[in-house]
Amino acid sequence: MPDLRQIIARNRAGEAIAIPSVCTAHPDALEASLTLAETLDQPIVVEATSNQVNQDGGYTGLRPANFLSFVRAIATKSHVARERILFGGDHLGPQAWRKLPAEDAMQKAHRMVADYAAAGFTKIHLDCSEGCLGETAQLPDETTATRSAALAATALKHAPDATKLLFVIGTEVPPPGGARTDDHGDIPPTTPDSAKSTLEAHRDAFNAAQIPLDQIGGLVVQPGVEFSPMEVHHLPLARDPGLLGALTDWPGVCLEAHSTDYQHPEAYPRLAQLGFAFQKVGPALTFAWREALYALDTMRAQTGWSTGPSLPDAMEEVMLANPGHWKAHIHGPEQRLQRHFGLADRIRYYWPDAKAQAAVQRLLTDLADKHLPDPLLAAHFRPSEIAIARKSRHPLPRALALARVQTALRPYFFTGPRP
Fold it and tell me: What is the mean pLDDT of the chain?
């Protein structure tokens, strides 16, 4: 099984090494990700968020143990070794129940963390930074750390092997209204002083709870990457925010970067050089899946093979019928454009819908028995994707979509096979 502590140690020793953390519950995005890791003989982390998977089922309907079984079944079916997969819980705290008083929300968070640990999740991101009913939107470090330490104690109590738990602390979610940019149009990174304050608060809280500090392995900070609905804020490659300096007294801790989706390929090794051994990706993978399906739909329309409405029209109908997953996030003009092409990929919540599933199946069926010549494919897919798809065990249309997801994930695997 991959060893996160070994990856942290190698990164802290100066090696540009990192492990991708894939945060999605989309079965095809997971299959593509796991298959790529197997092909490259690389480890991979699969993460679930507190809103996505919890004791109430989350928006996926899956509890923590169910999620592990779900992912492992995909791995088995795809001939991926289970041993290369680690499981992480992301933003585990009271977020899903913030409308409740803090005491009630934390009770639910304790139950959730206990279930994650008992199920076999070993990378646990503790995030109690957001306020509950009657509290401020963002809580001070001391409150956040005290609540996180309490959740860590619960995780340790319920884990089959507590020594395998690795806690990630801190958070760097955009403020209300989205991430702020500086005078150069870049996202300001976390300051070293702020990172030190977060570490010191958690040191005090973990010591008070008698939790070994060496079980803290990651610190979430902002390196300067983000994406808005229709724009990517790319990492300034020449900039070093000096965040490794905050870890001087923490040799077993690395940095974790969120929202790394859509960055240029050279950003990922640069992030590793800056100390980010944990690199999170999520929406970019389902965005790539949607992108590929829409390309296939365009091919179907261009050749006159359609047997019903276009896939975008079908998905628009599904999204308008149930606006709960996008209405609070999409504003102003061109809302249809944002629903289908927004980088936050709100459409990802709708693929499990029965009507969406039927529309995708109709697309794949319409193309299943058709000859797809290279000139047609080349108009919509990269040569590398076509080559991968032609070697796949899947029918060509679905194989092309899986290959597009792998294109999005491939830059995260820049360090070569394990030694």
Answer: 95
One of 3.20.20.70, 1.10.3720.10, 3.40.50.300, 3.20.20.370 is the CATH number of 4-281, namely 3.20.20.70
Residue 21: both structure tokens together:
């953390």
Q: For the chain, give every residue range classified as CATH 3.20.20.70.
A: 4-281
pLDDT at 415: 81
Distance CA 160, CA 216 (A): 18
CATH class label, 286-411? mainly alpha
Facing residues of 90 across strands? Answer: 49
Q: What is the pLDDT of residues 302-334, one digit of tens each?
A: 999 999 999 999 999 999 999 999 999 999 889
Q: Which residue has the higher pLDDT, 103 or 1?
A: 103
* pLDDT tens digits along 253-296: 999 999 999 999 999 999 999 999 999 999 999 999 999 999 99
**pTM for the structure as a whole:** 0.95
CB-based contact 330:339 (threshold 8 Å): yes
Q: Is the pLDDT of residue 416 over 70?
A: no
At residue 28, what are phi and psi to the nearest 5 degrees?
A: -75, -40
Query: Three-state SS string across the chain, please?
Result: CCCHHHHHHHHHCCCCCCEEEEECCCHHHHHHHHHHHHHHCCCEEEEEECCCECCCCHHHCECHHHHHHHHHHHHHHCCCCHHHEEEEEEEECCHHHCCCCHHHHHHHHHHHHHHHHHHCCCEEEECCCECCCCCCCECCHHHHHHHHHHHHHHHHHHCCCHHHCEEEECCCCCCCCCCCCCCCCCCCCCCHHHHHHHHHHHHHHHHHCCCCHHHEEEEECCCCCEEECCEEECCCCCCCCCHHHHHCCCCCCEEEECCCCCCCCCHHHHHHHCCEEEEEECHHHHHHHHHHHHHHHHHHHHHCCCCCCCHHHHHHHHHHHCHHHCCCCCCCCCHHHHHHHCCCCHHHHHCCCHHHHHHHHHHHHHHHCCCCCHHHHHCCCCHHHHHHHHCCCCCHHHHHHHHHHHHHHHHHCCCCCCC
Are the C-beta atoms of residues 408 and 288 closer than 8 Å to each other? yes
For CATH 1.10.400.20, the residue range(s) in the chain are 286-411
* Residue 264 · residue 234 · CB < 8 Å: yes
pLDDT at 212 over 80: yes
> Which of 180 and 76 is assigned the larger pLDDT?
76
